[in-house]
């Protein structure tokens, strides 16, 4: 009997992660000779942008991106700036 490999497993996993999301959390303490030197606390949320905005992540980014793409009442869209400071320079 030969082992088989299911190639769809990775695609299914990626689909679930993008659709539902995943939160990874890790706490690491680096020690030398039983003396703690560095503490690292990591937290990452991984999901598709639709899921992230549904849960309230990246709301400001989403609003800004939509403002730049969706035409206003005059039918114009805002041109993206190179840096956030460029927006403030235009307002002055």
TrEMBL record:
NCBIfam families: halo_gas_GvpM. Belongs to the gas vesicle GvpA family. Keywords: Gas vesicle. It comes from the Archaea. Pfam families: Gas_vesicle (PF00741). InterPro entries: Gas-vesicle_GvpA-like, GvpA, GvpA-like_CS. Residues 68-92 are annotated as: Disordered. One of its GO terms (cellular component) is vesicle membrane. GO terms for molecular function: structural molecule activity. Its main location: other. It is found in: Gas vesicle. The keyword Hydrolase does not apply. This is Gas vesicle protein.
């Amino acid at each position: 009997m030969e082992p088989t490999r299911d190639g769809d497993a990775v695609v299914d996993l990626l689909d679930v992660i993008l659709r539902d999301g995943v939160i990874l959390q890790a706490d690491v303490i680096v020690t030398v000779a039983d003396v703690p030197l560095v503490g690292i606390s990591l937290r990452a949320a991984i999901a598709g942008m639709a899921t992230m905005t549904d849960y309230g992540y990246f709301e400001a980014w989403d609003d800004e991106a939509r403002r730049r793409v969706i035409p206003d009442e005059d039918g114009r869209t805002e041109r993206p700036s190179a840096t956030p400071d460029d927006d403030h320079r235009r307002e002055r």
